[in-house]
């Protein structure tokens, strides 16, 4: 057998059962835990909506791997990214984040700085689960968590 990289074996296999630690390691490198807070004319508090999302963005040549990851989680969607050379896997459903994403990363913890982002993400999801995002105080807590994650607050929310 020719010497192939792990990525090509995973991407080209027709029936791959991914190891949970592979998912965690891959997320450490290419995943993102994100809390979107955006203006909403229907929102109950300060007209903002809170949307937690788990994301992996890859080159479109790795679509098969994202399909395998979606199959592993049993949830999520895959779409073309805005730059047309990438594809994006995401899980946005609060139910799936609570039942699939959070339990996975609790059982198979991240090893990099991404662990801190996951813990902040989880804390924000817990606030949403309790309905605290519907109060100004709760929304402020979520914004503080969001500001500490990834790249921080966007200019239009500062």
List keywords for this structure.
158 residues, Endonuclease I-creI
Explain briefly what this protein structure is.
The chain has 158 residues and is an alpha+beta fold.
Describe the structure.
- This protein is an alpha+beta fold.
- Helices cover 46% and strands 20% of the residues.
- It has helices at 6-12, 20-30, 63-73, 94-107, 114-129, 136-148, and strands at residues 31-39, 48-59, 77-80, 86-91.
- Residues 1-14 have low confidence and may be disordered.
Strand count, sense and closure of the main sheet?
Answer: 4 strands, antiparallel
Judged by helices, strands and strand pairing, the structural class is alpha+beta
CATH class: Alpha Beta
At the fold tier of CATH, the topology name is Endonuclease I-creI
What series of H and E elements makes up the topology? HHEEHEEHHH
In what range is the share of β-strand residues?
15-25%
Spatial arrangement of strands, main beta sheet? 1-2-4-3
- Helix % is 40-55%
Mean pLDDT: 85
- Counted by DSSP, the helix tally is 6
Question: In terms of per-residue confidence, which ranges show pLDDT below 50 for 5 or more consecutive residues?
Answer: 1-14
Shape annotation: globular
Rg result? 17 Å
Strand runs, count:
4
- Looking at CATH, the homologous superfamily is Homing endonucleases
Termini separation (Å)? 55 Å
Mind telling me which CATH architecture this is? Roll
């Amino acid at each position: 057998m020719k010497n192939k990289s792990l990525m090509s074996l995973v991407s080209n296999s027709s029936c791959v059962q991914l190891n949970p630690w592979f998912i965690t390691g891959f997320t450490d490198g290419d995943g993102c835990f994100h809390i979107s807070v955006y203006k909403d004319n229907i929102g109950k508090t300060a007209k903002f909506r809170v949307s937690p999302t788990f994301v992996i963005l890859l080159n479109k040549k790795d679509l098969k791997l994202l399909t395998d990851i979606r199959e592993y989680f049993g949830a999520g969607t895959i779409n073309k990214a805005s730059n047309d050379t990438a594809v994006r896997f995401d899980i946005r459903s609060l139910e799936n984040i609570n039942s699939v994403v959070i339990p996975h990363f609790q059982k198979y913890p991240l090893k990099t700085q991404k662990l801190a982002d996951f813990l902040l993400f989880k804390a924000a999801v817990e606030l949403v689960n309790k309905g605290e995002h519907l109060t100004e105080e709760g929304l402020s807590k979520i914004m503080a968590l969001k500001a500490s994650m990834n790249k921080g607050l966007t200019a239009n929310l500062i």
